[in-house]
Amino acid sequence: MQITVNGTATEVQAQTLADALDELGYRDAKVATAVNESFVPATARDAPLSPGDRIEIVAPRQGG
To answer: Do 21 and 12 touch, CB atoms closer than 8 A?
Structure first.
């Protein structure tokens, strides 16, 4: 299915946000996620995705 990940059109086989994170290499990463500009907590990532969904994935950074 065609989705947008952090502004880039991406083709995935995943049907849920959790599966998409795995497919995109974020399996064990601690990240914040949003679908269509709505925050999705880690406990709700099994909800189905739809073609055209816009996903944002943000990883924490260290620094000062």
So the answer is: no
- The verdict on pTM exceeding 0.85 is yes
Q: Which residue has the tokens 């994935």?
A: 57
Neighbours of 23 (CB within 10 A): 13
Structural domains of the chain ordered from first start: 2-58 (3.10.20.30)
Confidence of residue 64 (pLDDT cuts 50, 70, 90): low
